[in-house]
Amino acid sequence: MIFKKILPVATLSLALISLSACSTNKDTNPNAKKKELTTIQSKSEPRQDPQVRLKFNDIKTATAANDFKGGTSLEQVKALYGEPKSHTTKPAGDVTLDVYTWEIDGATISVQLFEDSTIARAISNFAFERKQTITKKIYDNKLPNDLTFTEVTEILGQPDVMSQAVSSDGEQLQALWSSNLKGKDNTRQIELIFKNGKLSKKSQHGLE
Prior knowledge:
Largest sheet: 8 strands, antiparallel
CATH class: Alpha Beta
Order of helices and strands: HHHEEEEHHEEEE
């Protein structure tokens, strides 16, 4: 059974598009300056519940080695987020995937399942509220290639948005940080891509 390469590519693009749209918005609330908020928020969204993002960590993807079985089931995702807002299907190679989407507290959560087993997941339009502690020096000196995702989160904390997908070609995870970075404007971000569990590519914008 073979999943086409386009599956992870299409899924992983969601986080980039959504984060870009979120981070360029400016707060128009005249009372915003009274609070020292570091969360990147949209014009109309209130402070987001961190549990929306942290629950996403409980969604596990299957592996090709296990015939794409053992990923989080639909009922297990419902236990985290309730009933999905939408359900569609999409072709992937010779099979069809079920795609479910939730919209909670301004964030969008999406999972793709093969025979009730998650093989792709994404969360977008979310930003934590936390202090700006990550500098360009940390980015330059503490993020060498081949770090695992867990090792990176010990340095940077949990990413604000992320997406992950598996296929017969392997596993890819894309993560973006925006809310704990030191920089001049709200377009600052770090993007990291992990292939088969190891950091393989990184980029940043606006760090100082």
